[in-house]
Amino acid sequence: MNKSHIYRRFLTFLTFSVLIPLLCLSCASNEPAAIDPEKAVYRLSPVTRSAEKPSQGVYYCIFVRSFADSDGDGIGDFRGLTEKLDYLNDGNDSTTDDLGVTGIWLMPMFPSQSYHGYNVDDYYAVNPDYGTMADFEYFLKEADSRGISVIIDMTCNHSSVYTDWFISSRDPDSPYRDWYRWANEDDAGYNLKQKIWGHNVWNKDPKTGTYYAGLFENGMPDFNLANPEVRAEFKKIVSFWMDKGVSGFRFDAAGHVFNSAKLKAGESSQEQAVGWWKEICGYIAAENPDAYNVGEVWEPASTRAVYTAGLKSTFHFDLGTAIVDTIRAEDGGKNNLANMLYGDYQLYAKQNAEYIDAPFLTNHDQNRISGMLKGDFTKLKLAASLYILAEGVPFMYYGEEIGLMGAKPDEQIRTPMLWNAPGKDALQTTWIDSKYNKKTVPVAAQRKDEDSLLQYYKRLIRVKTAHSALYEGRLTPVWTGEPELISWVMESDAERAFVIHNVSSEAMTAALPAEAGAEDLQLVFATYSDTSVSADGYITVSPYGSAVLAASR
């Protein structure tokens, strides 16, 4: 958090502590609600949130094109996003209108020929569909004033074919030739006929007859990150955006920057990749010690762990699938999910003791979670609890909190956010029709229903960001012995929390495990009001419900 934000919070404190008592008593009904932790146990209520660093709290992934449209062209933009910031976090702990997220991950917002933006034309500009650089800078300023950190998507693996760099590199004598991976048919060590995901890795350039690597497609030529000039350029790029106020980066395709398919036979892949991530993340940390970076390494935990040595934080792929499978089975086995998490964390810790996990349910490349659980809000609440109350920095995908539906192809996973009934929200985007969301309940309606999925997400995010054990603690599995219950302990320097989930359709009662330190734990959160803790140390958890008990250390 920068000094300007701390100063604004100080002014806010002065306003409430000095000026408000001077107002007439008739204005009392307009005062912010008092913060009472006991009220927040069973219902949405204000809490004091203490997660403030970019590497703490809860992030919200936004596809700008689909979020909020300020100029009526059907495409989301920075001004629309700025107008919706109070929906995400209004900066006031005494309100409950906002979702409460502490961070935003913006999917690509650079100029691009594609709708998704992952093939970047210019790394020093913003997509004109989304507005101007001034619009983006104003958005960053307004986000910061609310305590929201912003990280942006960064593609170091590839660019578009329209960058000046690539266009120049097509000339064998160009100083940019070695910025990309080029090869001739007779070059030893390369397999120019190699395929990945059903297409060719190496693409013949019709202009020169030579081949360039494009791991994802021929319109996305791969950078040669072994070239010191390319590495230096990306340091300039991240500095440029940090100077604008960005708090870090989500590195796209982080596991592929030295993919063996584009290397010479025998050339190291992971070793070079980890070396690059250590270098760029170290550079970012030197400029801003509080910066938060997270990498996309869509691989098993053992491979993600290797990359954690350089990236520190990676997305927890496979967790969403494990959560869905557990909920569908209504059986947690022998605390299987908690044990899986702990095992993965142990792998990370061996590579980097300061690792930060980034759990999520689904992202912009996967079918949406709501469809997987058939739109059942009860089960969607449980799924949300299972990942948000785990270790690390959880990442929500926009619309997840209202049960937005979506399935492949990708465009149908990235459809417009639903704010209100058709025609009732001027900021509604319309760039594509969503065939899966004809019956999805929009934000406006869910705000009026205290039992809605949206209101539950607000509660979850508040408990996550109010308790240090939850937002910076480490997880240890602690089981009750009941297969329907999944549980763990989270511990930070200041606090201990016991988290328990009932994955079955029946209420479950179990003794609080001695390892949880049950003697001084207090119930601070429960999905449903019939969850309770008895004086003799037993907890009853509602069907598909979750609970958190916490105590200071």
TrEMBL record:
SMART domains: Aamy
Keyword terms of this UniProt record: Glycosidase, Hydrolase, Signal
GO molecular function term, any single one: alpha-amylase activity
Keyword Transmembrane helix: no
Any Pfam family: Alpha-amylase
Gene3D superfamilies in the cross-refs: Glycosidases, Oligo-1,6-glucosidase, Domain 2
Alphabetical list of InterPro entries matching this protein: GH, GH13_cat_dom, O16G_dom_2, SusG-like_C
Top-level taxon in the UniProt lineage: Bacteria
Keyword Hydrolase annotated: yes
Record-linked PANTHER family: ALPHA-AMYLASE FAMILY MEMBER, NEUTRAL AND BASIC AMINO ACID TRANSPORT PROTEIN RBAT
Family in the record: Belongs to the glycosyl hydrolase 13 family.
Protein name in the entry: Alpha amylase catalytic region
